[in-house]
Amino acid sequence: MKILIYKWKVYYQDIIADTFRNMGHEVYVEDFSGSSYNDDDCFKCVAEEQIRQYSPDMVFTVNYFGVLSDACRECGLPYVAWTCDSPLIAMYHESVFNSNNFLFIFDKVQYYYFKNVVGANVYYLPLAANPDFLPAGCGVCNDGENDFGVHDFSSEISFVGSLYEKNSYDSISDKLTPYLCGYFDAAMNAQADIFGENIFDRLLTPDILAQLGQIIDFRQSDRSFSDIGLVFNTTFLGFKMAQRERIGCLSLLGQSHEVKLYTDSHIPIDGVRNMGSVSYHEDMAKVFGNSKINLNFTLRNIRSGIPLRVWDVLACGGFLLTNFQAEMPAFFENGKDLVWFDSIDDMKKKADYYLTHEDERLEIAANGCRKARREHSYENRLSYIIDTVRLGCKEGELPGDEGIYEKCK
Length: 409
Fold this sequence. Notes:
Blueprint: E1 2-7, H1 13-22, E2 26-31, H2 41-54, E3 58-62, H3 66-75, E4 79-82, E5 101-105, H4 108-117, E6 122-124, E7 155-160, H5 168-172, H6 178-191, H7 200-203, H8 206-213, H9 228-254, E8 259-262, E9 272-274, H10 284-290, E10 291-296, H11 308-315, E11 320-323, E12 339-341, H12 344-355, H13 358-375, H14 378-395, H15 404-408
Parallel strand pairs: 1-2, 1-3, 3-4, 4-5, 5-6, 7-8, 7-10, 8-9, 10-11, 11-12
């Protein structure tokens, strides 16, 4: 199959392109990271010209871009999108109903929403682990010492990710009334120790949204069906909540353990050593492999799905301590493949425990690594995509999604 990939700002797109090639497909990549794509007629024309030039069998992107869906529709070509963000506001767009779309969504709550709204061309597909992430001869999955020989990357506890230093909530906080400030502060305090459920939905009442409408300059295209509640919940409260949660948890752990933070944020946290950003392809595996405990804090916007950081840590042979997500039990065993926590106090207790029980920690890391690399690889996921597109194009209708868990395992 000939595949045209439109590349934007996602770290692992090269892994996807290489995997497609290793599977025997012909792959072309166009980088549109700096392009404007929302209802951009000029870009649509450029895309149509490129599609006709390459004559691919399908166009593929990580996340969804309506202008590419429209361009592919004009060219009579399947458009395949695999999400890595949730909720993906770009999908709340009338182009999502284009019959040439094949939409693969990693968060099952979002999958159910779009399956109900759009119909048969929507599929559930979790993210993946890269079997080639771990350098040869290193890590617990290769029966060797989990040591990359780089002392600077060793730590008791580490976290790789953003603190959302710049977020939309902070940009409007000085415009909020005292009542709204107190309301949202109380909401975030309540959400802080509740994992597996997002309470913000119930708190964004019509009255609260009406007040926000007087503050936020909410605009959307004529073809969009998102609303101010979705946008505020996601890009305002969600990112601010992530900032508060990550700083609070890291600060708590830093009181009694060596904690390293790999980020491009500059917010100081007592007891935590900020190491700056780390290269995804070059050094991230060294962090995961040399940290006794790797942390994951999932954005509250992701309702049930498993974020990419989980798959990356496991693929690198790292021990993972993560917040609970509803989909995790379908793929992993708690205390065998990874360890999840259901409260901040539980996080602290489990970090203390596994730092003093090395044999258990290493065994869990090895189990998680083997399972992720052998059963949840990119080839596994992309094979499902290719089979789905081929069957849909051959029969003129899209297959059902029954048994996806079994197919992914």
